[in-house]
Amino acid sequence: GIATFLPFYLTEKFHLDEQGAISTILLANLASTVGMVISSPIGGYLSDRLGKRRPFVAAAGIIMVAGLVVLAFAPSVAIVILAQAVIGLGAGSFFSVDLALATQVLPSPDDTAKDLGVLNIANALPQSIAPAIAPGIIALGSATAIGGYSVWYLFGALVALLGAVLVYRIKGVK
Questions:
Q1: What is the pLDDT of residue 30?
Q2: What b-and-e string marks burial along 155-170, b requiring 16 or more CB atoms within 10 Å of the CB?
Q3: Of 56, 64, 58, 76, whose CA–CA distance to 2 is shortest?
């Protein structure tokens, strides 16, 4: 979702040429990766140390929400790169702690492989659906003062916020 439409966002909002968009995406990906590398082990460590999963998954979701909102309203390319770093901070912690949470709530040790397969499908499905629904959301958003790509990133923030809230409906873990 984010990476797929970032080149279009950059060229439309900031009027970057192809080389400018490529350079910005490289820096944004680097910033996101650094954020993930920092937060993934820290989030996992703190979650293990405190014996809690849901607060860390929720906090990671809120951090991603903040990054997506900043990205949606970024006034400059530098802020786009900063937003990607924030999203990476949230994503790194989310992926490490969410996987730990998921393995704790598997229904039966005898079905772990099957259940992890279902979990993998559940994780991959949104990545498959997002490119299919994005053009409609972007087109609808283009009719607003905010702009289509900004509406797309705000939609992503809404989905991340829902995930952060709904993690508390998972029973059997702290």
A1: 97
A2: bbbebbbebbeebeee
A3: 64
Q: Where are the alpha helices (DSSP H) in the chain?
A: 2-13, 18-50, 54-72, 77-104, 112-142, 148-166
Answer whether 0.90 is exceeded by the pTM: no
Rounded to a whole number of angstroms, the CA Rg of the chain reads 17
3-state DSSP assignment of residue 167: helix
Rounded-to-integer distance, Cα 150 and Cα 73, Å? 7
As a dihedral over the C-alpha atoms of residue 146, residue 151, residue 152, residue 157, rounded to 10 degrees, the angle is: 120
Return d(Cα 90, Cα 65) in angstroms, integer. 9
Q: Give pairs for 128-131: CB < 8 Å, separation 24+.
A: 130/1, 130/4, 131/1, 131/4
Instruction: Compute CA distances 33 → 29, 86, 114, 144, whole Å.
Output: 6, 10, 30, 32
Q: What single letter denotes the amino acid at residue 113? A: A
Residues of the chain whose pLDDT is less than 70? 1, 172-174
CA dist., res. 2 & res. 8, Å (int): 11
